[in-house]
Amino acid sequence: MNLVSSSHAHPLAWQRLLGTAVPALLLGVGLTLSPIGQASAQTSPPASSTEGAKPGQSKPDAKTETKAETKPVRPTPLARQSTDQLFERLATASTPEEAKGIANLIQRRWARSGSDTADLLMSRAQEALKAGEVALGVEILDRLIAIEPDWAEGWNQRANAFFVLQDPVRSMLDIGEALKREPRHFGALGGLGIILRQQGNDKLALQAYRRVLTLYPQMEGVKEQVESLARDIDGRDI
């Protein structure tokens, strides 16, 4: 979710700025549970070079084997990597610039539904939102979600529109739907953190922002939000 601080700001500005809660939503996205984790891949121990050799076969030449092992492997270009691989790269990016490039590529993939009709509706909805015609944007997104209910970005964009219309409850519900379909959606999690903090639920907001950092540690403004909230909550709990 790309939230804004007011209904007059650009609908994608919340990443730069970085009550009534919905208990079912919060439980559904796991804010009372452990942060999102990615299962570590288990690798089998390498087989011995002599295993499986048939009688009479000569053992591999040690020099040849060593040379083969040390041959450099060219990294797969980002554009050809799977989304899971991109998230692994995003979590370990060494600079904000590197991370932003990877995040942009992930977002471009999220922005494709696989349906020409849905993609066209998304384009028209975004044009309406940028023009300040938010009600029209919601109407278009309603149609989009009706034909592509499994597309997380449709729900995410409508959550943004509801936020602009100052309807945080429906915004949070749509965030929940987006996260059901893509639990790693760092934009939706960041938007949830903004709404929770506005409602005064700083502890859950802190959890949402920390979830963002497990996915996108270099995301602009989020680390500062976590540090600020942690100080405030620790001060109140003393």
What does this structure look like?
The protein has 238 residues and is mainly α. Among the domains are: 114-183, Tetratricopeptide repeat domain (Serine Threonine Protein Phosphatase 5, Tetratricopeptide repeat, Alpha Horseshoe), CATH 1.25.40.10; 185-238, no CATH class. Helices cover 60% and strands 0% of the residues. It contains twelve helices and no strands. The longest helix is centred in the last third of the chain and has 16 residues, at 222-237. The protein is flat and about 55 Å long.
In DSSP terms, counting alpha (H) and pi (I) runs of 4 or more, how many helices? 12
Level-1 CATH class name of the domain at 114-183? Mainly Alpha
Compute the number of strand runs: 0
* Average pLDDT number: 80
Between the first and last Cα atoms, what is the distance in angstroms? 34 Å
General shape: flat
Catalogue the unreliable spans.
3-24, 33-54
What portion of residues is helical? 55-70%
Cα-based radius of gyration, to the nearest Å: 23 Å
**Structural class, from helix and strand content?**
mainly alpha
Instruction: Give the H and E element order.
Output: HHHHHHHHHHHH
Largest sheet, strands/sense/barrel:
none
CATH superfamily of the domain at 114-183: Tetratricopeptide repeat domain
CATH fold name of the domain at 114-183: Serine Threonine Protein Phosphatase 5, Tetratricopeptide repeat
Beta content comes to under 5%
CATH architecture name of the domain at 114-183: Alpha Horseshoe
